[in-house]
Amino acid sequence: MKKDKLYLLTFLSLLVIVFVTAYFSMNYLVGLSTEQFLKIQLESSKREAQELAKMITYQIDNEIDEETIVRNFQNSIENTNTQAGFVCMFDWSGKEICHPDPEKIGKITGPNESYVKGVGQEVNSKDFYTYLKNQETGGGVRDFEDPSRDSEIIYLYPVKNTDWIVAAHANMNKIHEEIESVQDHFLVVHVLTGLAIVFLSLVMVRSIGSSYERQLEQKNEKLSEEVLSLTKLNHDLAAYKKKLEATDTSSLKPDGSEGKKRVLTYLKNELVSLSIEDIAYIFTENTVTYVKRLDGKVTTSNNSLEELSNDLDDSQFFRANRQFILSINAIHKILRYGNNQLKIEVVPESDINIIVSKNKASEFKKWLNS
């Protein structure tokens, strides 16, 4: 139940993170894509207006009469598709000279219908997008008093040597539809992508979590086995101590000889003879052999650890490693250490960790079971 709750919280957290991130990224990408779309629209309208204005200028330079030029221009744009945008031509007074809708010819394009700051000023895509998004004036583009108006003048180009101006219109409704279409596509893509990311992430989390749980269970099982093993070792330790207490401590060594009952040591310049029952452990440090007594006092020996190990009673002393010989009476607790190694806690405490290696551990266990 706790796992299901954890996975649910993980799913909800991923969902929130992905969709919050997607919201901001989508707005940025929609804005960027829309600006690119409007930039193409503006460049196209600008190029069309310039080309038509230059064509009219060329005709005037070739002394074609204005009536013929106007008639030809009107014939070329009349009844054209105004869905995406269109061009028209009016004079400096605002009177329409040519328009795709013949009914508008002769009418005045007043300031309440269309307004551009200046003929030489251009509208950039960023300003145009700001206008469309926020319905605010920007970059020479004006928001009309009539919001239902279909088109907006976005570029003006004067015809040289005349009072005519070629105007490029953009269809606002069409552009709005295109922008909304872009937003809808981005929204669908982000939602589907977000859900896919969340779902796949949850699957991966569950997969990794399950794998980790299996590994953890195996480790716990192994640890339980080691705990049982250590418990048994410590139980054997206690049993072995009782066994020694109940038997004669002067038992014979395996070769039939009697183990030493005393060890000759030194305390500074004083010669000290120690009973083996008083020895806690013997260790070497910096090539010096030290003998630590159960009362905590330390003496030294001229013999090597190997020589002392051969002379001591194997039933009471164990060679834990190259540095330590332990008395059964000093061993307090046996702990797991590293990879199948054992750590021995002794009384009195040792400043150096007493570690029984992996290879030596089995021998140590047999010693406790002997």
Quick summary:
This protein is α+β, with helices and mostly antiparallel strands. The chain has helices at 2-61, 66-77, 125-134, 172-246, 305-311, 358-369, and strands at 85-91, 96-98, 151-158, 164-171, 262-267, 270-275, 279-285, 288-293, 298-301, 317-319, 324-327, 331-337, 341-346, 354-356. The protein is built from six helices and 14 strands.
Give keywords.
alpha+beta, OB fold (Dihydrolipoamide Acetyltransferase, E2P), 2 domains, 14 strands, 48% helix, rod-shaped
Characterise this structure.
Helix content is 48%, strand content 21%. It has 370 residues and is of the alpha+beta class. The chain folds into 2 domains: 2-190, PAS domain (Beta-Lactamase, 2-Layer Sandwich); 262-369, OB fold (Dihydrolipoamide Acetyltransferase, E2P), CATH 2.40.50.40. β7 and β8 (288-293) form a beta hairpin. α1 (2-61) packs antiparallel against α4. The longest helix is centred in the middle third of the chain and has 75 residues, at 172-246. It is rod-shaped, with a radius of gyration of 49 Å.
